[in-house]
Amino acid sequence: MNEQPLLPRDFFDRPVDEVAPALLGQVLRHRTPDGEVAARLTEVEAYAGPLDPASHAYRGRTPRNAVMFGPPGHAYVYFTYGMHFCMNLVCGPDGTSMAVLLRAGEIIAGEDVARERRPRSSVRDLGRGPARLCQALGIAREQNGLDVCAPDGPLTVHAGEPADPALIRTGPRTGVNGAKEVPWRFWIDGDPSVSPYRPHVPRQRKKSVPTRGGR
Fold it and tell me: By its UniProt entry, which Gene3D superfamilies does this protein fall under (predicted)?
């Protein structure tokens, strides 16, 4: 399989709101014993570390988010809702904890492998959403911390066809509780692999119903 050149580390060593739209159209590849799968990125979200209430790093460094504080060009993978993995790319100077969440992508290589991992998905839905994208590419906790700029690494990001600036759209991030108004979700307008927008909905606690004879 012919591969595009790797994105250099200085691509990621920039403000996160610059890196995020520049990632649209770039190619994420993952090589596993099952085979190689590649996705053209079509939707991302930027998070600005301690300056951003919606970021995992807003309250400081923890064992979970430690990769975000490391050098740019590394994968930050986290587990959410007790069932899904999501992947970010660490950006900005070492120690700033900025990252871009990879929200969606079009599978452009290894579709047969991706289908084995997501047998009930249509072609459009194989990487349509951050958890689906990780599942299709076989990304899980073991990939947390990998250097995506390493030429011999299993998980890499390559130069693709940059998105047409006229088609790049911005809007509120999906499902965040803090900083809801920040328009740091970026996507390619009209691309079928882009995931649907869902605003954050606070969970409602069930009210207890008093019973007779209760304390």
Answer: Methylpurine-DNA glycosylase (MPG) (3.10.300.10)
CB 43 within 8 A of CB 185: yes
- Cα distance between residue 101 and residue 191, in whole Å: 18
CA angle (86 as vertex; 84, 88 as ends), nearest 5: 170
Q: Are 191 and 106 in contact (CB under 8 A)?
A: yes
Q: What is the pTM assigned to this prediction?
A: 0.89
Q: Which residues fall within 8 angstroms of residue 27, CB to CB, at 6 or more apart?
A: 4, 38, 39, 40, 41, 108, 157, 158, 159, 160
Structure tokens at 168: 């790049």
Q: Are residues 14 and 91 in contact, defined by beta-carbon separation less than 8 angstroms?
A: yes
Rounded Cα gap, residues 85 and 203, in angstroms? 21
pLDDT tens across 77-103, in order? 999 877 899 999 999 999 999 999 999
Where along the chain do its domains lie? 9-165
- Domain 9-165: give its CATH code: 3.10.300.10
b (16+ CB within 10 A) / e for 100-126: bbbbbbbbebbeebbbebeeebeeebb
